[in-house]
Specification:
GO terms for molecular function: glyoxylate reductase (NADPH) activity; hydroxypyruvate reductase [NAD(P)H] activity; NAD binding; phosphoglycerate dehydrogenase activity. Its EC number is 1.1.1.95. This protein has 338 residues and is of the alpha/beta class. It is built from 14 helices and twelve strands.
Length: 338
């Protein structure tokens, strides 16, 4: 694959007056982002050195050679991003901008710090993955509040009218939505819930109350949120301060009949306490993330009737990958167009 990189670089050196873009390695993920339309979009405004399909990490010396004369970096995801260090960029000396198509926390947090330390402007263009996750969140909230999963199971199980309780379902617009974490995804979730007319409350100790109010969200304590929300949606990142933040005590605060949605990280929940509380049948859970992935075949989540599970696909669709790449390419094009 490194030979392919060198060949592409040789071709790029012959073109003058257009930006030179380097695509760092993402291995087998590359075709998910770069379909023929996106390949044409990239080459319509830039010359290209692509290591996209490379699977093995290059040495710093190889990266310096590959990045020779490069003006911008296309970072399709976090694989390979931290390999482009501050030292590599300073040795190259020409890179001005990097566009991130699909933000991967583990790869892009260190990469962004290194790139900015080298004076490179970093553009986060990963809005499509946020929108995809929020679409899943809103969809599962509707499934939960309207009790559509239970009605489906009842009818398929032979019930004529899903009685008793056929008219006990709620309405999203009449619900209180509790958002735990009002960062990137939580903010968009608030914006998508608001048109339904739902009451929005939030817990985020790092967000000033005026900022939350601008989102249409009233900040409350964690206990108040869990005791009053009809729908609780988790959007905190996994940190030392948030791991296991919902344990036996906090899960006991959830109101009966609540809908708990987790598209963030399983580490936010104490799994042992979570399973014990789910077995009580007091509330329903919609989960896309798990401590062990893929979810073991004998895991209790697979058999609990009040748990709806999906295989970590809230933000994982073909359209999302291509949209992320397309937006990053458009941002790079606009940057160089001035």
């Amino acid at each position: 694959m490194l030979a392919d990189v060198t060949e592409a670089n040789d071709l790029a050196e012959g073109a003058m007056g257009t930006p030179h873009i380097y695509v760092h390695r993402v291995g087998d993920w590359y075709p998910l982002y770069m379909d023929p339309d996106n390949e044409r979009r990239l080459r319509a405004f830039a010359t290209v050195t692509s290591a996209g399909l490379v699977t093995e990490p290059p040495s710093p010396d190889q990266l310096v050679r590959d990045l020779a004369g490069v003006d911008g970096i296309l970072s399709l995801n976090g694989i390979g991003a931290p390999e482009i260090t501050t030292e590599v960029l300073r040795s190259v000396g020409t890179v001005r901008v990097a566009a991130i198509a699909h933000w991967w926390h583990g790869g892009h947090v260190p990469a962004r710090a290194m790139w900015e330390a080298a004076g490179v402007e970093v553009i986060d263009a990963s809005d499509p993955v946020t929108e995809a996750v929020v679409e899943w969140v809103v969809g599962t909230a509707i499934l939960g509040v309207r009790r559509l999963v239970e009605f489906d199971r009842a009818l398929k199980g032979g019930s004529a009218w899903a009685e008793p309780g056929r008219r006990d379902a709620g309405l999203l617009g009449a619900s209180t939505i509790g958002i735990i974490g009002l960062g990137r995804v939580g903010r968009v979730a608030a914006a998508r819930f608001r048109p339904f007319g739902a009451r929005l409350i939030g817990y985020d100790p790092w967000l000033p109350a005026p900022d939350a109010a601008a989102l249409g969200v009233r900040l409350v304590g964690l206990e108040e949120l869990l005791r009053t929300a009809d729908v609780v949606s988790l959007h905190m990142p996994p940190t030392d301060a948030t791991r296991g933040m919902l344990g036996a005590r906090e899960l006991g605060w959830l109101k009966d009949g609540a809908v708990l949605i987790n598209s963030a990280r399983a580490a936010l929940l104490d799994e042992v306490a979570f399973i014990a509380e789910l077995r009580s049948g007091r509330f329903r859970a919609f989960l896309d993330v798990f401590d062990d992935e893929p979810l073991p075949l004998d895991h209790p989540f697979r058999s609990l009737e009040n748990v709806f599970i999906t295989p970590h696909i809230a933000g994982d669709t073909t359209g999302m990958f291509r949209s992320c790449a397309r937006l990053a390419l458009d941002r790079l094009r606009d940057y160089f167009a001035g």
